[in-house]
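Summary for the steering committee. The consortium agreed at its last meeting that each partner would contribute one worked example illustrating the joint modelling workflow. Our contribution is presented below. We chose a case with several input lines so that the handling of multiple components could be demonstrated. No manual editing was applied between input and output; the record is shown as generated.
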Amino acid sequence: MEPILLLAHTEADGTLAKPALEALGAALSLGGELNVGLVGAEVQPAANQISGAGAKRILGVAGEAFSQPRYATDAAAAEAICRAAGAGIVLAPSTSRWSRALPGVAYRLGGRVDTHSTGLELRNGAPAVTRWFYRQRMEAVLSREQRPWVVLLDPGCFAAWSGPAGTATVENVPVEAPPTRTTVTGVQAPKADEQTIRPDAKLLFVAGAGWTKKQADGAIHGREAETLILGFLRTTKSSLGGSKSLVDASGEGEAVLGFMTHLNQIGQTGSTPRHRKGLSTCCHGEEPHVVGWRFVNERRAINLDPNCGWARGKADVVYVADAFEVMRHVNQLLGA
Amino acid sequence: MNTPLQIVVCGSIVPDPLQTLEPVTGPNGPSLKNEMLLPAVLDPWAGHALFEAAHLAGKRSGSKVWLVSLGPKAKLQQVMMTVAQKVPFELVALDGPASGFSDSFETAAALAAAIEAIASLDRAKLLLFGGWESASRGTGSTLQMVGERLGIGEQFQGVDEITVRDDGSFTVLERIEGGRHQVSVCAAPPAVLGWATGNLPEPKNNPQVGMANMRTVMPALQRAKAAPISNTGLRFESVSLPKQQRETRIVKNMPVEEMAREIVAWIGEE
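What follows is the complete predicted structure of the assembly.
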């Protein structure tokens, strides 16, 4: 097995987050020589955190210029580490930071890049990557001749490395921060009581456009829909997803759920989150929606139509009922 | 003073999401069964990029939008009949595969060469737009490599909003983990922006825009250069559809109270 470089960026406290530890676990599973490259404001805490992982070298680029996720500085740091390590295989977690920067780094190094890898194995002594195509509609296993081969690994697909922290030696890789016209000024997050996207939640609750359509009494009950959904989310700490039609309605001035944005969108043109369970409501479950559920293990749906897409082998259970009624009772039972 | 913008949008076509897709493997690697017969649409995130580009350009006189599109010429022509009615742009067409199995490295090389060949483009003012991922390959890597080839070091991905100021500087909101946005200020173009959904609805068809666009779309398609993608060094070991078909239990005629109890119990299961 050829040498591997694991590239990771540190968090604000200088340590590594779970996606980086998962990528480390994946790298170790391939065997062979492992080097680690760390980028951040400070990297020693991260190096200490993984000192027991058995890396041959730990290379670091540290400093204020590298504290913020920014293409120019991240690409420069990653490029320098890759050149210093000289590894043929470069693994990294699919964080927003690395997803932005590493494809360009692969180009600079004359290599190739593959992203959203959900599996990694050795075939005939060489790595083979599993990833999905056409928005999670087909799965492929591929390999490449070119080196370096940069592979970004999706979070939640690999067992995270764990081990006791110690004291590690970091080889400083000198990098002059490149000139950049970009200044990162901060992060916009929803207020705590409006937080509806929870990547680590056990349950994904998906609301479809039916919530904002006329109900049996001929009226739209948007306010009640908001109350029911938010009450459920607050009590269960679930993550909220929306179908494209519902999210688009929010942007087009129709009856809307005020807390629903494009960030909640699940499916063909949205995200494909990883949750253990998913509950779909008022969503017909056709293919463009369901591709967003590829990584949701246990699936249940509430729909008035017994022939909806969910009933055709896409959900484990379909409750043929009015979601308003069912969710009223669910919230009552939960004390929401 | 409002600085005019020069916006190049990279965007190709993908099969209509409602179509059933089935992979087949031939001597040149995997492709989709009956790929040339499948109805196609403009790649959704690239579409958002195009609409945002047109919206920005519309607010600044002297601005211009190009759409650089790599795909089979016949399919591009079909899709452009619809897309051209949405917003004003000038098409730069490349005749090659729009397959999800095409390598992003080679795709980026073809797109960058096409952009470099746009004679009237002032690259110092360039905003390079595209979808942050395609709905076919979905790697989110092509734009960065196009940017690198054009020497653009200011890059943003997962963009939902751009606010351009009179002096040409702009603020960008990029999606990051946990449903949050990173806010950055860039002092000036050139820059690469890979768009997520943005904030604009799809524009309604405008026949006048369509007629104006078609005057340049058809000649652009006629002079589209061949852009073969060889996938050198890339080997697909297998491509398959997910096998899992669930045994769905359909619950009808159960009191809603009982359904609710069942759901709550299921949520609580470890």
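Residues 71-85 of chain A form the longest helix (15 residues). Chain A has two domains: 4-172, 192-334.
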